[in-house]
Design goal:
alpha/beta, globular, DNA-binding
DNA sequence: AGGCAATTGGG
DNA sequence: CCAATTGCC
């Protein structure tokens, strides 16, 4: 047994960073105050993650993120230990065993809001409160805390624009500040480390982490830089050189115009607060240098996207059914979605015969990421032209995205499917060919991912003629855009 | 965070 | 013949 009188434990989940981490800073502060060591843990949940459709590439990205995190924690003496619980229902057992093995006095973690995660945490609290001195949870996922924004009637907002207005008023009134760095804590002594080692896997080598992750199906994610340092580099690169043009370039899939940080937000390598603070600070500097409102519009638009993320997190927290495959608008559950597995497969594989849709779907399959504009285009084609159940598309995205994040992915799909609150009105159906002409005018993006069309001219590449398709060995469109659009509108209209 | 077709008004 | 505008889905 350890000579030190116990320790403090931080449980990492979707907050894989040292900076601006409320629970971690609180844990380290408590440990420092009481001269206790601080240990950290992370729990691998193979079966649960399968049920949650976590993508193999996202799990590989997690593996690499944990390695970066573990190295940073090792340097501070806050060693990271890996535990395995097949499903969330096993987590209380697994944690209790570890907590007892290391004699943890207090457990710290940041809240998660989807139904299963919430239930897991309730069960953990019920199990551990009797055997520990204290449990501490912190609000972290969203920039403004969940349940903090309410209408004058005290209700959660259901529409983005008034929500955003209220969000901005709140942040103007009391600016967002970041959590201080976790203070240094005493190094755990040998008996404590030995006890922890017997109960879990210490993540002090890449090999040790890889062995634990051998229980999972992984897809190589090394094209995507991982870890906190990489995340800050990427954020800085965006803020310094691309954010100014975000407003005009973000809708062009052929251009690197978006922030490229969604994968870091998805697993908490970065917090939304950090992004917001960096962006508002950069905008303030520009204005101080005399920049016009127009010149800072890129920053303002990007900040608005961060608020969309908060909106969807808040919406899911206030409406837990959203994390259980339920539409926000209950009546849309009566829609008779098509049963069309060959259409579904053509969409997945990128051979629908609509060039931009196919380019986008191939980008997802090949890289694990898809441009935001194209997520809307492909989801709209899926739900309105193929008239397939949005839940199938939502699941396919989660299973393939390196940056899959339930609130945003669900929010985006329900927006496209017109089943969500403040969603696209059912009659506002994107035409993927028009979208192609306006956002990929020279077909540059299409050429990149649908190489068989590379030699077509800028005009016909968006919708090649019969002979051109034949010559390129490219399929005819699997649906007629005009008639399927009209049918979808008709079906939605009949709901009311 | 649209699309479409009918209409208008200038060449 | 055309771009811009309008009303509806």
């Amino acid at each position: 047994m350890s000579n030190q009188k116990g320790c403090v434990l931080h449980w990492f989940r979707n907050d894989l960073r040292l900076a601006d981490n409320p629970a971690l800073t609180a844990a380290a502060t408590r440990a420092a105050d009481e001269a206790l060591p601080l240990l950290c843990c992370f729990i691998i949940c193979p079966e649960q993650w399968k049920q949650h459709d976590e993508a193999p590439i996202k799990l590989d990205f997690l593996r690499r993120t944990l390695w970066e995190l573990a190295k940073a924690l090792e340097e501070r003496g806050n060693y990271l230990f890996l535990l395995t619980a097949n499903t969330f229902s096993e987590v209380p057992d697994v944690l209790e065993t570890f907590v007892k093995a290391i004699d943890a006095q207090a457990l710290f973690f940041n809240e998660e809001y989807a139904v299963n995660e919430h239930r897991r945490d309730q069960a953990v609290a019920g199990r551990l409160l009797p055997v520990m001195r204290s449990l501490h949870s912190y609000r972290d996922q969203s920039i403004l805390p969940v349940k903090s924004i309410r209408t004058q009637a005290g209700e959660p907002y259901k529409v983005f624009t008034p929500y955003k207005r209220s969000w901005l008023e709140l942040t103007d009134g009391s600016p967002i500040s970041l959590w201080p760095k976790p203070p240094q804590t005493v190094t755990p002594d040998k008996p404590l480390v030995a006890a922890a080692n017997r109960a879990a896997t210490r993540a002090n080598t890449a090999k040790a982490i890889d062995e634990v992750f051998a229980a999972l199906e992984l897809t190589d994610s090394t094209a995507w830089a991982a870890g906190e340092d990489a995340a800050h580099d990427e954020l800085e690169a965006f803020i310094d050189s691309r954010a100014e043009d975000y407003d005009t370039l973000r809708d062009k899939p052929a251009v690197n115009g978006t922030s490229q940080i969604s994968r870091f937000l998805a697993n908490g390598t970065l917090s939304g607060r950090q992004c917001y603070v960096v962006a508002t600070e950069a905008r303030r500097r520009l204005k101080a240098e005399g920049a016009s409102e127009h010149a800072t519009k890129g920053f303002t638009t990007w900040i608005s996207e961060l608020i969309w993320r908060d909106f969807y997190i808040h919406l899911m927290t206030d409406n837990p059914r959203l994390s259980m495959h339920q539409p926000f608008k209950a009546d849309t559950d009566q829609l008779q979605w098509n049963d069309d597995s060959s259409g579904f497969e053509a969409w997945c594989e990128g051979r629908t015969g609509i060039p931009l849709v196919d380019a986008a779907m191939r980008q997802l399959k090949q890289t694990g990421w898809m441009h935001n504009r194209l997520r809307m285009v492909t989801a709209m084609f899926f739900t309105k032209n193929l008239f397939l159940d949005w839940r199938l598309g939502e699941r396919y995205f989660m299973r393939n995205l390196v940056d899959g994040y339930l609130p945003s992915n669900n929010g985006g799909w329900q927006w496209s499917a017109s089943t969500g609150t403040d969603a696209a009105p059912y009659f506002r159906v994107f035409n993927p060919v028009s979208q192609s002409r306006s956002h990929d005018p020279d077909g540059e993006f299409i050429r990149r991912f649908v190489p068989e069309l590379a030699d077509l001219d800028n005009k016909s590449i968006h919708d090649p003629g019969k002979a051109q398709r034949k010559a390129c060995d490219y399929p005819e469109a699997i649906v007629d855009l005009k008639t399927t659009r009209a049918l979808a509108i008709e079906r939605f209209k009949n709901l009311g």
